[in-house]
Amino acid sequence: MSLTSIHKTFRGSWLHPQQHSALRGVDLMVEPGERVAVIGESGSGKTTLARIAAGLVKADSGEVHLFGENTASWGRRDWHRNRQRAQILFQDPWAMLNPSMTVGVLLTESATLHPGDKRTSETRARVALGDVGLGDKFNAYPVELSGGERRRAGIARLLLAKPSLVIADEPTAGLDAALKYSLLTLLVERLGESCALVIISHDLPTVAWASERIVVMRQGLVVDRFPVSALRSSSPRDPHTLALLRSAGMPCPPARERP
After folding, report:
1. Which of 125, 127, 185, 238 is the most buried (most CB within 10 A)?
2. Do 176 and 153 lie in a common domain?
3. Is 243's pLDDT higher than 60?
4. 18-62 pLDDT, tens digit each
5. Confidence tier at 237 by pLDDT (50, 70, 90)
6. Domain enclosing residue 147, as ranges
7. How many domains in the chain?
8. Distance of CA 178 to CAs 51, 92, 174, 183, Å?
9. Packed helices 121-131 and 147-159: angle between N→C axes, nearest 10 degrees
10. 101-113 pLDDT, tens per residue?
11. Rounded to an integer, what distance in angstroms lies between the CA atom of residue 255 and that of residue 243?
């Protein structure tokens, strides 16, 4: 996945007439199989960037390449063709679950839409639920699941597509520390080494544990990028990165000098 010089401005409303520049020339490259965390406070533009990458929001300018193709020329049929390969895991698990369907019916339907091996769709759905620790929830409705279980069910649905790229938007929001690490462990292990993973979050300690590289955003710009190993080094960092580290109680290297 490659995003180059992405700009996005949202028009104001009658309540808030001022325009908002969500992204101001952002570049992001993610190699196949790479784990990248995009970190930033609320309003930094990270979720907008994720939605542009997934084709849910159109950029004002810039280029988006997925699987070696420029998506500017893609129509509805092209996005449908590649939707299985590029999946988004929404922050709100309700966005991936139909409250009127049992989890089993929902996953069986997903398995039918994403054909796999010779097993029946229901068998594949049951296996997917078992893989995320919900083997006994096949006949449960989403409202009968806890918040963590609904997220696991969303991951099971995503895994049935066998994607090459997953963009996870705040996948651990609202969960306690133990559930956060459990969920990310599940996501990383079940996706496998060939699937690229982009984790959108403001929780630096949690996502750093599950990532190879960190990209820091602020006010629509990328202000820092570095491998996770640099968190344990004395390499200077951007002041905003240092502020995020301090707020998370993590050791801080010296500040990078401004040009």
Report:
1. 125
2. no
3. yes
4. 788 999 999 999 999 999 999 998 889 999 999 999 999 999 999
5. confident
6. 87-162
7. 2
8. 28, 19, 12, 9
9. 130
10. 999 999 999 888 8
11. 10
Residues in the chain: 259
Query: Pick from 3, 6, 25: which is nearest to 70 by CA?
Result: 3
Nearest CA to 30 out of 168, 142, 145, 149 is that of 168
Q: Are residues 80 and 170 in the same domain?
A: yes
And the tokens for 151?
């997220």
Strand intervals (E) in the chain: 2-10, 20-29, 35-39, 61-66, 69-70, 86-89, 165-169, 196-201, 213-218, 221-227
Structure tokens at 1: 């996945």
Q: How far apart are CA 78 and CA 215, in angstroms?
A: 29
Q: Is the pLDDT of residue 12 over 80?
A: no
pLDDT surpasses 70 at 137: yes
Task: Give the containing element (helix H, strand E) for 188.
Answer: helix 177-191
> CA-based angle 62:67:70, to the nearest 5?
30
Q: Is the pLDDT of residue 234 over 80?
A: no
> How many CA atoms lie within 13 Å of 97's alpha carbon, on the beta-carbon side?
24
State percent of the chain over pLDDT 70.
Answer: 94
Identify whether the C-beta of residue 91 lies closer than 8 Å to the C-beta of residue 170.
yes
CATH number at residue 61: 3.40.50.300
Structure tokens at 10: 């949202």
Say whether both 175 and 253 belong to one domain. Answer: yes
Residue 3 CB contacts under 8 Å (≥ 6 apart), including other chains: 26, 27, 28, 29, 49, 52, 53, 62, 63, 64, 65
